[in-house]
Amino acid sequence: MSTLTGNENLKIMVIDDSSTIRRSAEIFLGQVGYKVILAEDGFDALAKINDTHPDLIFCDILMPRLDGYQTCALIKKSAKFRNTPVIMLSSKDGLFDRARGAMVGSDEYLTKPFTKDSLLKTVRNYTSVPPSK
Predict the structure, then answer these.
(1) Nearest-5° angle of CA 58, CA 71, CA 63?
(2) Is 14:103 a contact under the CB 8 Å cutoff?
(3) 19 touches 60 (CB < 8 A)
(4) Measured between alpha carbons, how far is 69 from 99 in angstroms, rounded to an integer?
(5) Higher-confidence residue: 58 or 132?
(6) CA atoms within a 13 Å half-sphere pointing along the CA-CB vector of 65
C-alpha cells in the first residue's frame, strides 16, 4: 500500500552552485513528496528545463557562467515557461537585488539560508498542491 501525498507530480527545480543549498532544498522538498530537479548553474538548468517542465523554479543569483538574473530572464522570455514561477535565492537582502530580480521577471525573492518552513511556504504560495505533513 503506497501513501500518496498528492505532491508526487509537482516538480520543483533548484538552481544553485552550492551543493549544500541544493542538498538542503532537496531534503526539505523531498520530505513532503515533491519531485526535485537539481541544477548547478544556469546552463545546467536551461538544459534540464525543457526535459523536466518544472512547476516552480528556485534560482540562486550569484553563480558562475550564467548568473541568476540572466537565467531568470531567459526562462521568462520563453513562451513555454514564462508563466513558471521563478523565486530568486540570495544571501544578500538588499533593495537593489530585489528590484533587479523583479526587472528580469522573478516572482519572489527568498533570502539564504532559508528554513524548511520558509521554503515550503513559498512553494505553497505559488502552487495549487499544498505539502502534506
Answers:
(1) 75
(2) no
(3) no
(4) 11
(5) 58
(6) 11
Distances (CA, A) of 99 to 25, 33, 106, 108, 115: 24, 32, 10, 10, 23
pLDDT digits (tens, 9 = 90+) for 3-41: 334 566 899 999 999 999 999 999 999 999 999 999 999
pTM of the model: 0.90
**Alpha-carbon distance 96 to 81, whole Å?**
25
CA distances from 61 to 17, 24, 37, 51, 117 (A): 10, 17, 18, 23, 21
What is the DSSP code (8-state) at residue 51? H
Rounded Cα–Cα distance for residues 85 and 77 (Å): 13
